[in-house]
């Protein structure tokens, strides 16, 4: 990266000192991660954001829903800055509040809503998290999806159903691989159809109502690619994120959140051969940090998460320099009514065991 920009970032961060705390998601560019005070997956960063109540500014190098969660979990005196306001998430955009409310009304009409617990993946807007808080549900991340589903399914006895938002893959993979449900226990709710595109008996019998959303990066890995790499690369260990399709995770050796993926690589002996199915910035960084292992990207035709990559060094420099000059730009502020219920859902998640 441009040495002049690196120097400007360093100078602005130094001038701000303890007033600023920079969080970096593992999918961020190297040039940004270099300036992060902490790095983590969504779960770790949600906790880390709350761990520095003395910092006036939290600069969140990640995407919009993460910055919203940081705003909710930090004190009102702290301001959360997202260096590029266009850093959204296509998956989070697949569940809009009005659509979720319509789906809920359909579940009320079907006579099942009193047995449904809504659980939203962290990758959702604050108003979806608030919806879950208001309706007795919770939030989960890819690190604690199993614990959150265990909790949710125990809320109304054996007939409890979960409405899982917005990532159908994380919902299905967790239910089937970790909770031992069958694929038939899981049905997909199509938000573009008033009845979810489901027959009444499907809604009645399902245990998991999976919102029809997916990650545009992880959703691109296929089972065929896993089969091909196994045929071509002897002793390869396939390590993937649970946002991948079911056909991918069932063919993988190991499945877990980005923190889990990092832990597996860090604990592996020299000479281990990996094909990793997650965001490319993280895979490249792992490969550079572990030359004693052979680390490949699962599919060379899949590229970076374009919205994560919007946060680059020029945007970070702009944020840090404007804060140092007394201007607070790109503040993410969740409105108090939404924040109140989203807090309920997020705190339920943070109080889950593990
Ligand atoms: P985790 O950080 O929970 O692994 O989620 C991955 C992701 O896609 C974040 O946008
Ligand atoms: Fe959203 Fe997928 Fe990008 Fe994560 S990797 S921010 S889920 S589009």
TrEMBL record:
GO terms for cellular component: cytosol. It catalyses: iminosuccinate + dihydroxyacetone phosphate = quinolinate + phosphate + 2 H2O + H(+). Iminosuccinate binds at residues 25, 42, 121-123, 142, 241-243, 258. It comes from Marmoricola endophyticus. Binds 1 [4Fe-4S] cluster per subunit. InterPro entries: NadA (IPR003473), NadA_sf (IPR036094), Quinolinate_synth_A_type3 (IPR023515). Keywords: 4Fe-4S, Cytoplasm, Iron, Iron-sulfur, Metal-binding, Pyridine nucleotide biosynthesis, Transferase. The keyword Metal-binding applies. It is an enzyme of class 2 (transferase). GO terms for molecular function: 4 iron, 4 sulfur cluster binding; metal ion binding; quinolinate synthetase A activity. Pathway: Cofactor biosynthesis; NAD(+) biosynthesis; quinolinate from iminoaspartate: step 1/1. [4Fe-4S] cluster binds at residues 89, 215, 305. HAMAP family: NadA_type3 (MF_00569). The keyword Iron-sulfur applies. Its cofactor is [4Fe-4S] cluster. Catalyzes the condensation of iminoaspartate with dihydroxyacetone phosphate to form quinolinate. It is found in: Cytoplasm. Pfam families: NadA. GO terms for biological process: 'de novo' NAD+ biosynthetic process from L-aspartate. This is Quinolinate synthase. Belongs to the quinolinate synthase family. Type 3 subfamily. Its EC number is 2.5.1.72.
């Amino acid at each position: 990266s441009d040495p002049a920009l690196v120097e400007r970032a360093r100078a602005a961060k130094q001038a701000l000192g303890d007033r600023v705390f920079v969080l970096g998601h593992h999918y961020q560019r190297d040039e940004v991660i270099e300036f992060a005070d902490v790095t983590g997956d969504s779960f770790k960063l949600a906790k880390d954001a709350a761990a520095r109540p003395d910092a006036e500014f939290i600069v969140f190098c990640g995407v919009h829903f993460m910055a919203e969660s940081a705003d909710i979990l930090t004190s009102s005196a702290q301001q959360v800055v997202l260096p590029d306001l266009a850093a959204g998430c296509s998956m989070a955009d697949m569940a809009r509040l009005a659509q979720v409310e319509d789906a809920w009304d359909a579940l009320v009409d079907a006579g099942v809503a009193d047995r449904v617990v809504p659980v939203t993946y962290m990758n959702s807007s604050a108003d979806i998290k608030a919806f879950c808080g208001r309706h007795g549900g919770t939030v989960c991340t890819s690190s604690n999806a199993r614990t959150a589903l265990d909790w949710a399914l125990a809320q109304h006895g054996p007939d409890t159903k979960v409405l899982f938002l917005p990532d159908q893959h994380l919902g299905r993979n967790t239910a089937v691989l970790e909770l031992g449900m069958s694929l038939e226990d899981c049905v997909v709710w199509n938000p573009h159809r008033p009845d979810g595109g489901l027959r009444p008996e499907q809604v009645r019998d399902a245990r998991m109502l999976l919102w029809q959303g997916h990650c545009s990066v992880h959703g691109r890995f296929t089972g065929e690619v896993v089969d091909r790499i196994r045929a071509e690369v002897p002793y390869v260990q396939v390590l993937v994120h649970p946002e991948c399709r079911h056909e991918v995770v069932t063919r993988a050796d190991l499945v877990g959140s980005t923190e889990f993926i990092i832990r597996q690589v860090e604990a592996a002996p020299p000479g281990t051969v990996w094909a990793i199915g997650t965001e490319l910035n993280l895979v490249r960084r792992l490969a550079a940090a572990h030359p004693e292992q052979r680390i490949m990207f699962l599919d060379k035709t899949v590229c970076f998460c374009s919205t994560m990559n919007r946060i680059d060094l020029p945007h970070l420099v702009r944020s840090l320099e404007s804060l140092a000059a007394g201007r607070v730009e790109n503040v993410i502020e969740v409105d108090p009514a939404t924040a109140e219920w989203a807090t309920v859902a997020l705190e339920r998640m943070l109080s889950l065991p593990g």
